[in-house]
């Protein structure tokens, strides 16, 4: 349709351009949220204050004076994307849509959207998708997953330091390497290689402490799988979100 055209009742109109505008804004808002994120520390929380299924529970992690509540690295990503939606639609609409930071519609490109429990879905993606992504394939705002070295994951399944959930920032460092945001012990902006090195240190310590009989991999050997991006890129399911936003009231 041309600019200024009128839409008649029953006429089908492509909203693809509007969805692209919404997606780009959500990606920009995601990067903004990474800059605002201020939790107390990186710990797995045992509970959240009352009202966890509304915008206020999300917003408390993004205030200038921070929050006394803690969060782990994966839930930090949930909060970032939830905050991006809030910055786009506002607090009231976020609540009215029935969203919370643990109920964000997501898509991985080839999977059914609308996962109600992201923990399970992300685990399935990581285990079932055996393709290592080139870092330049990720758009700004995408979630990537950087795994620790293969021998650690083999011997210590379920341990911390399996990997780090990161958000692609869509920008490079001074050497042309893509930058990622992650919440390790505090918010960090690093390259993929720097996150791999960060994960390797506690992995080696656990190896030495609990598996002294197993040789630590030779990281100078080019055949050693040292870790890196793994799995599918992940972002807010823009189409499903738009459908929720514009669904007529019954």
Q: Can you give the helix content as a percent range?
A: 25-40%
H-E string: HHHHEHEHEEEHEEH
Assign an overall shape: elongated
Individual helix count? 8
Work out the number of β strands.
7
List the helices and strands and how they pair.
Elements: H1 16-36, H2 55-59, H3 73-89, H4 91-96, E1 106-107, H5 118-128, E2 143-147, H6 150-155, E3 163-172, E4 178-183, E5 187-191, H7 192-210, E6 228-229, E7 235-236, H8 238-246
Antiparallel strand pairs: 1-7, 2-3, 2-6, 3-4, 4-5
Helix pairs in contact: 1-3
Describe this structure in words.
It is a single chain. This protein is an alpha+beta fold. It has two domains: 14-111 and 236-250, no CATH class; 130-231, no CATH class. It contains eight helices and seven strands. The longest helix has 21 residues, at 16-36.
Brief summary of the model shown:
This protein is α+β, with helices and mostly antiparallel strands and 250 residues long.
Keywords:
5-stranded antiparallel β-sheet; two-stranded antiparallel sheet; elongated; single chain; alpha+beta; 2 domains; 38% helix; 250 residues
